[in-house]
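Notebook entry, structure prediction.
Reason for the run: the old model in the group folder had no record of what sequence produced it. Starting over properly, with the input documented here first.
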Amino acid sequence: MNNQIKIIASLLFCLLTFNVCANEVEEWLLKSAEQGDVGAQSTLGLMYSNRQDYKQAVKWWLKAAEQGDAISQYNIGLMYVEEQGVPQDYKQAIKWWLKSAEQGDADAQYNLGSLYYRGQGIPQDYKQAVKWGVKAAKQGNVKAQYSLGSMYYYGQGVPQDYKQAAKWYLKAAKQGDVKAQQNIGVMYAFGQGVIPSNKNAYAWSSLAAMNGDKSAVNNRDDYAKLLSPLGLEQAQELAAKLHEKINNKG
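New structure, fully documented this time:
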């Protein structure tokens, strides 16, 4: 059994025994971390972060990050952005998110792309935003999928392409992103990148409305007026199926 598995097993055991051995586990983690164990260092960072002792969290995540741990690299970047345990420093955040992103961490890829998009700590560069957004989106990062849909829709960093916009909005919508659900509904209404369909427009707008998007309510009602009684019934059934599949999955 390697050290990371031992750490997880020990923590689970403590949870199951109402933290009777919490002090013993923390002591063991500290000893392992001081000996350079990456898993222990990363776990201590999480433990201290949960306690809101951010300086200690940074200390141990930094040690793990310097050893190449992608999750700790992502966490250190986040700490620099949110001013937790360290002064806010976007350049440091970019440094660590880049390291994590290059190892394939989807959250780091999305966040790095977002900084390029907004020009925070780095010159604004839509092409770089798209580059990292694509990497994250392909791994299923829902925020990246929505952002990529928007960049294709408005032609930011890529030629305007409604088919690609619809593709990525639809992926995000199916993962429960409310803005993407509203946007794909509009695209179905106007036939942007998809075959025009008032039924689909109604269904996706209805789902967005059920999930709290107030602007989707008006759109849903407008699309309903364009449907026959039978068409409206079918659209409502589709909306119910989408709601059940997306909102109740897992």
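Summary: Residues 177-250 form one domain.
The old model has been moved to the deprecated folder.
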